[in-house]
C-alpha cells in the first residue's frame, strides 16, 4: 500500500513517531511516498528528521505556539493572536495539502496531529481514507481525568484535538497502556512509537541527572538550583539555536544542543530524567526504567503529566526542583507492563493501517458524537493532579 504522512512540526515527538512508523511500513512491504510537513517562521525541520525519514518532504505553513521571550510557559491566548494574521497562509496550505493528496492518490493518509490536515478533509471531499495518530487523542477517552484547569482551556484543547481528526476514518490514541478501549469504534488505543535506537538500548544506572528543556528560559531555574546543590551532576539538552554544541557551566552542569544520538546515549545511562512533559521522551524514560520529573510548559503537557503519573512514570513539579526527583528515585518501581506493550507495536499498527476500512459515514458520526459528549460531560474537568 502507498501512504502519505502529514506531520505537525511543533515538537520532536510527532517527528520521531513518523520515522518509526515509516520504518514499520517499509519493512512490511509498503511505501511512504511523501511527507507533508507543517512549518512556521519559528520552526526549522531538525536535521535528524530529514536524514532518517528517507522520504521526500514537502512543507506548508501551519499554526503553532507563539514564540516565547521571557515567559517560561506557553500562552494559549498569545498563540491565538500570533496565528490570526497568518490565516491567509493557512488557507494556501489547505489547498496545497489537498492538491498533493489528489496528485499522489495514496491508499491511506496518516495525520500526526496537524490541524490543517483535519480541516482539509472537512472542506474537500477527499476519498483517500485518513487515519490520525497522536497521544493527544487519549484526552478524548471516556475515562480520562483532566488536571484542574479552567473550562475554557480544556474546551480549547479538546476543540483543537477534534479539528485535527475531522472526517478521519480511524483515530489511534498513543497510550501508556493504562486505559480500557474507547466506547466509540472509530477510536483505538495503540502503543507508543518508540525509535529503534531506544528499543535496542541497554539501560544502566549512572550518577547524573539528564534533562530536556523546551525553551532556554528554563535555564535560570536550573542554574539557581545548581548553585544550591553543586554536588549533583546535571546534563541538560535544549533547543537553544544560538548556543554552542556544549555549554559547560562548571564540572557538574552542562547544556547540550539537542542531538538525537547523544540524547539517547545519555538517557540510557542517566540516574533519572527531568523534562517539561513531552509524551515521547517520557515514554523513552519509562521504557529505559528512568524516573521522571515533569514540569509542564502548557496545558497539553499538563495532561501528559496526569497520564504519566497514573502509570508511576514520575512526579509533577511547578519548577525544576531536582531534589524532588532525587528523592523520588529512592522508591521508584519500573512498570512491568510497559515494555511488552511497546514491543507489540509493529503487529498492532500493521493491523490498523492495512485492514480494509468499511463504513466511513459511521466513523464520521462517531467522532462528532464523541466531541459532543466530551464537551458536555460533567466529569471532564475533574481534578487529577
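Sequence proposed for the structure above (385 residues):
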Amino acid at each position: 500500500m502507498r501512504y502519505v504522512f502529514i506531520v505537525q512540526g511543533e515538537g520532536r515527538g510527532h517527528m520521531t513517531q513518523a520515522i518509526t512508523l515509516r520504518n514499520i511500513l517499509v519493512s512490511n512491504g509498503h511505501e511512504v511516498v511523501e511527507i507533508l510537513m507543517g512549518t512556521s517562521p519559528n520552526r526549522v525541520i531538525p536535521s535528524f528528521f530529514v536524514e532518517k525519514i528517507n522520504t521526500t518532504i514537502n512543507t506548508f505553513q501551519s499554526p503553532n505556539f507563539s514564540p516565547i521571550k521571557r515567559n517560561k510557559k506557553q500562552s494559549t491566548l498569545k498563540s491565538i493572536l500570533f496565528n490570526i494574521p497568518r490565516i491567509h497562509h493557512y488557507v494556501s496550505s489547505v489547498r496545497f495539502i489537498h492538491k498533493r493528496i489528489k496528485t499522489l492518490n495514496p491508499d491511506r493518509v496518516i495525520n500526526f496531529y496537524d490541524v490543517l490536515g483535519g480541516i482539509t478533509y472537512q472542506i474537500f471531499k477527499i476519498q483517500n481514507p485518513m487515519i490520525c495518530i497522536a497521544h493527544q487523542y487519549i484526552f478524548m477517552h471516556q475515562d480520562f481525568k483532566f488536571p484542574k484547569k479552567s473550562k475554557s482551556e480544556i474546551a480549547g484543547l479538546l476543540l483543537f484535538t477534534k479539528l485535527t481528526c475531522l472526517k478521519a476514518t480511524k483515530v489511534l490514541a498513543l497510550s501508556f497502556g493504562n486505559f480500557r478501549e474507547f466506547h466509540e469504534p472509530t477510536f483505538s488505543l495503540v502503543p507508543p512509537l518508540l525509535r529503534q535506537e531506544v528499543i535496542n538500548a541497554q539501560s544502566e544506572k549512572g550518577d547524573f541527572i539528564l534533562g530536556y528543556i523546551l525553551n532556554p528560559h528554563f535555564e535560570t531555574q536550573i542554574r539557581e538550583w545548581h548553585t544550591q546543590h553543586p554536588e549533583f551532576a546535571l546534563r541538560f539538552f535544549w533547543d537553544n539555536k544560538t548556543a554552542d554544541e556544549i555549554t559547560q557551566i562548571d564540572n557538574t552542569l552542562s547544556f547540550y544542543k539537542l542531538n538525537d544520538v547523544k540524547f539517547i546515549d545519555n538517557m540510557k545511562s542517566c540516574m533519572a530524567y527531568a523534562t517539561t512533559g513531552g509524551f515521547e521522551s517520557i515514554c523513552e524514560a519509562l521504557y529505559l526504567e528512568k524516573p521522571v520529573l515533569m514540569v509542564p510548559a502548557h496545558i497539553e503537557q499538563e495532561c501528559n503529566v496526569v497520564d504519566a503519573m497514573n502509570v508511576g512514570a514520575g512526579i509533577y513539579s511547578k519548577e525544576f526542583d531536582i531534589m524532588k526527583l532525587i528523592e523520588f528515585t529512592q522508591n521508584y518501581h519500573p512498570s512491568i507492563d510497559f515494555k511488552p506493550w511497546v514491543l507489540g507495536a509493529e503487529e498492532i499498527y500493521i493491523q490498523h493501517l492495512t485492514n480494509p476500512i468499511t463504513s466511513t459515514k459511521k466513523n464520521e458520526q462517531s467522532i462528532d458524537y464523541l466531541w459532543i459528549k466530551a464537551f458536555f460531560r460533567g466529569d471532564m474537568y475533574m481534578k487529577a493532579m
